[in-house]
């Protein structure tokens, strides 16, 4: 498994997003972290860190913490701060796009929809034996992607206002073609044919630019799950990785037993995703396999029961239980942001800076 974390850069004084990505990435690249890769994102206010391949949570946690420490130090040297949140808290100037033909093509297709786009996520990669199995796993993941969102909500504010959502990032990305819960696919060939058609129809820049919350990686032999908002803390990134790995292990077991995933309706998935983004773990969710309303926390409990054998197999059960209890006690990232907002939105950014850099 491996994790890619996207971060925002904010000015040290104003706490508003600041386009210093090229300078920060140049500094970070000089660090002696051979396992970690630092890279640019769509706009110059964002940076990304990708771990190497990890086989246990302890190794993953160390690499995530090292990457954050390195990027935070590089940011400080450039007069900015590193923040892990799904969407900017304070209003600011429109972020410039990073240079390059790929980013220019995306901006040309999406036009005003992508202007000011600064959302950040936590992407989990889990190795799978082949692409055919990856698509089968993708189908099994679909009903649980909204619950992964509910667990990770960390973007309640949108450029100076409370959006009313736990994850405004999900709402922003819903505007893009190829967003949300992916369709059900009968095979890898069907998946590839659909992507090719989307590119041919002019709605995607290329096959790498879908915004689906899960997909077979276009570059790696993995399934890539992108449901989570940028994780407020290292622990929350580790939790998302552990749960996703267990979901993938569970799905592989189902497929080995000849049990294909039920093709849950796409519109129902959209509604369930909206509910998860709106309420996080504090309200109602939608049970996609049974097509009924239920408490979001009950959905999380059912998910954890479902993946318990896989968590035991990977040795992650105790860690996951402890981290879920921690969120139950302190609240999701979105809940903590709203508590900090009692003292003003700058206080929210201050808290995010501290959380992001905490090992």
From TrEMBL:
Pfam families named in the record: GCS2
An MF annotation (GO) of this entry: glutamate-cysteine ligase activity
InterPro entries on file: GCL_type2/YbdK_subfam (IPR050141), GCS2 (IPR006336), Gln_synth/guanido_kin_cat_dom (IPR014746), YbdK (IPR011793)
Upper classification of the organism: Bacteria, Bacillati, Actinomycetota, Actinomycetes, Streptosporangiales
UniProt-recorded name of the protein: Putative glutamate--cysteine ligase 2
HAMAP family registered for this protein in UniProt: Glu_cys_ligase_2
Enzyme class per UniProt: ligase
Database matches in NCBIfam families: gshA_cyan_rel, PRK13517.1-1
Keywords: ATP-binding, Ligase, Nucleotide-binding
Catalytic function, reaction form: L-cysteine + L-glutamate + ATP = gamma-L-glutamyl-L-cysteine + ADP + phosphate + H(+)
Job of this protein: ATP-dependent carboxylate-amine ligase which exhibits weak glutamate--cysteine ligase activity.
PANTHER family for this protein: GLUTAMATE--CYSTEINE LIGASE 2-RELATED (PTHR36510:SF1)
EC number: 6.3.2.2
Organism the protein comes from: Actinoallomurus iriomotensis
